[in-house]
Design a protein that fits this description.
The complex is a heterodimer of chains A (176) and B (162). Chain A is built from 8 helices and 2 strands, in the order H-H-H-H-H-H-H-E-E-H. Chain A has helices at residues 2-31, 39-61, 69-95, 97-108, 113-118, 120-123, 126-139, 154-169; strands at residues 143-146, 149-152. In chain A, a hairpin with a 2-residue loop joins strand 1 (143-146) and strand 2 (149-152). The longest helix of chain A has 30 residues, at 2-31. Chain A starts with a helix and ends in a 7-residue tail after the last helix. The mean pLDDT of chain A is 89. Helix content of chain B is 75%, strand content 7%. Chain B is extended, with a radius of gyration of 21 Å. Classes of the chains: A mainly alpha (176), B mainly alpha (162).
Amino acid sequence: MEVLDQLWTSALCVVVSAALIPLLHIPIMRLRRNHVQEMLLWMIASWAVSFVAWHVLFLWIERSYPLHINAFVEAYALLGFLWLGYLEMMFKLYRGLSHTIVTDIERTQPVTLETIMRDFAQGTGAEEMLNRRLRAMQISGLIRIEHDRLILTGKGERAARMTSALKSFLKLGSCG
Amino acid sequence: MNIIPPLLTALLALVIFFAVHVVMWRAVQPKGLMILVAIAAGSFAIAAMVMMTAGVISADVWVGLCVYLFCILAYLHFYVGTCRALSARILEELMHANGAMTLEELDRVYPLQWIYASRLRLLVEHGWLIEESGLFRTTPKARFFARIIVALRRVYGITRAG
């Protein structure tokens, strides 16, 4: 029963400490709103704080009992799961193409394909959307851009080979 | 209660998941994300039943579920990134062009208009948009969803999305 109690405590501590991720991340993102490239860094920092908070909470509550490894595995896996979910949500909010198309159409409907592309992301435009992706790929070291020419780096080639192999193995076709 | 039964439960569920996923994806169409989620849920249900029949207690199955959920979500990230991401497709096109191409050449093999048209087609197929004579409108489901996205973007102070 002691182990079951620890699993309950651990799950409860996960809920409390995971709530710290948006609570810390939102004010930071509002303060650093013009530094989109820092988004991932702050998310990792928020997650690290929540991870430490879980340990502090859990060890404080369970200090008089022998600690069970399953409670730790449960917490690490759940915190990782919640963080990955949060990461996905943030990515969709920032860069979700379909999500932005839906919010754009909702604002200005009915619209044609050409209007959607021209006014994409509140007037940013489809070309700028592509440029942002290319800049992000350049910052990540996947490509180099020299005189309007895109050049694949070694890291980019490894990533391309991996995705290409998965697509071919799962017969996904040339989606994207 | 030790760590082996939960890890075995998660491992068994992952083996079932990947076996069904690979066989179905190589043999059957369509290949939707929701089908993948259904396979993931079914795989864990089967693994949990097998392990509980073998005498594993429900608390161990719960810990196994936590590990399994983390692994599945990590894989879904990778899968969606491979399948849908523009960047992944651009890298592939570059690889097929011997590692270099101009923006014009990229637009010939992966046109910007096609990117948007394919997204719009998917959104129509999944009931988010309605198309009438080349004009797109949102459905009530999309309207609700759009309001949530806009509200969340406001909360986070995101002004340059997309």
